[in-house]
Amino acid sequence: MASTPIDRRERMALQTRADILQTARRLFAERGYAATSVNDIAEEASVAIQTIYTRLGSKRGIVMALLEVIDEEAGVREAAAAIATASTPADVLRTQNRLTRDLQERCGDIVGALIAAAATEPEVAQAVAEGLRRHRNGASITINRIAELDGLRPDLPADHAIALLSAATTHDAWYELVRAHKLSWDEAEQTLNDALAKAILRPN
Question: How far is the CA of 78 from the CAs of 71, 81, 85, 102, 176, in angstroms?
Fold first, then answer.
């Protein structure tokens, strides 16, 4: 059965929602969460405040919806498919590391802004907690796939490997490599790939 085409009004509504989210993403990154009001977002997006409440609910609703924007910009769905079909443990690990790199390179500004706001804003803390849950779940899926391919070091328990991969690819870890130590994104990715391969993968 063919799907019903999205009519013009629905397309416009979806585009308005996307515009609101992109505006909120930019303002939260530039000004910080607490310093950005719903009115600021409405003015910058050229929509009525009521439109924001209709499309996304509260400011918390905007933050939770931004998680999907981040996932889309980072290519999470595509990376998950690549991990599921990868034929070697090294390819699985490289794909996961590239995903976390893409997420931080493309969305690190908003991720950092939300992490900073989470200390004082409960609704942001909930969104950050969900983001961390997804990150850890991604590490778990990656290690489980490596184990399926018999690529995990025999002396490394799977839960330890998940913890190691998760910790080594957080926002703070990428920030340390790229911002604090001035590695290029390519250098940082290669460094992580090499170190994690030695730590996690079964020696050839």
Answer: 10, 5, 11, 12, 26
What is the pTM assigned to this prediction?
Answer: 0.87
Q: How far apart are CA 40 and CA 36, in angstroms?
A: 6
* 10-55: pLDDT as tens digits: 888 888 899 999 999 999 999 999 999 999 999 999 999 999 998 8
Residue 87 burial (CB < 10 Å; 0-12/13-18/19+)? exposed
Report residue 110 as tokens. Answer: 């908003």
Asked if 177 and 192 count as a contact pair (C-beta separation under 8 A), the reply is: yes
Summarize pLDDT for 80-122 with one digit per residue, the tens: 999 999 999 999 999 999 999 999 999 999 999 999 999 999 9
